[in-house]
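User: Please fill in residues for this 129-position structure.
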């Protein structure tokens, strides 16, 4: 279902042609990492994380300090781990985007079970009737 919506940013001016073809969506983002980013303490019991993707886009996320401490503890406790910061894609900044209502999760990577190798039977070994 499409809705004719106007962008909330007054700097964005779209032709009426585009506004009747726009569909409203939820813009959620998940940023994955294999090493803990540096955290900078900020007011209101939060820490600020700066993450960058493979294209050099910088994402700024404010995380609850308690969640950050748990993520640090989990990363130390697990021998092989991965993590993610997720939230809503926020406003554009000078060199990237804000991540609004961000949360962090660190999880243990499970070792993949190896499949027993399947041996192929060649056509020479099969009796031909």
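Assistant: Residues filled in for all 129 positions:
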């Amino acid at each position: 279902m499409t809705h004719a919506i106007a962008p909330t940013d007054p700097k964005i001016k779209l032709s009426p042609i585009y506004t009747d073809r726009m569909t409203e969506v939820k813009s959620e983002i998940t940023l994955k990492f294999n090493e803990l980013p540096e955290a900078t303490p900020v007011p209101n019991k939060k820490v600020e994380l700066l993450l960058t993707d493979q294209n050099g886009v910088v994402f700024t996320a404010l995380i609850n300090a308690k969640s950050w401490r748990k993520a640090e503890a989990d990363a130390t406790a697990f021998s092989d781990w991965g993590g993610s910061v997720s939230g809503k894609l926020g406003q554009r900044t000078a060199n990237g985007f804000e991540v609004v209502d961000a949360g962090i999760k660190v999880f243990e990577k499970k070792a993949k079970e190896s499949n027993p190798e399947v041996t192929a039977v060649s056509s020479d070994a099969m009796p031909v009737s």
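For context: Strands lie at 28-33, 39-42, 46-52, 58-64, 81-92, 96-108.
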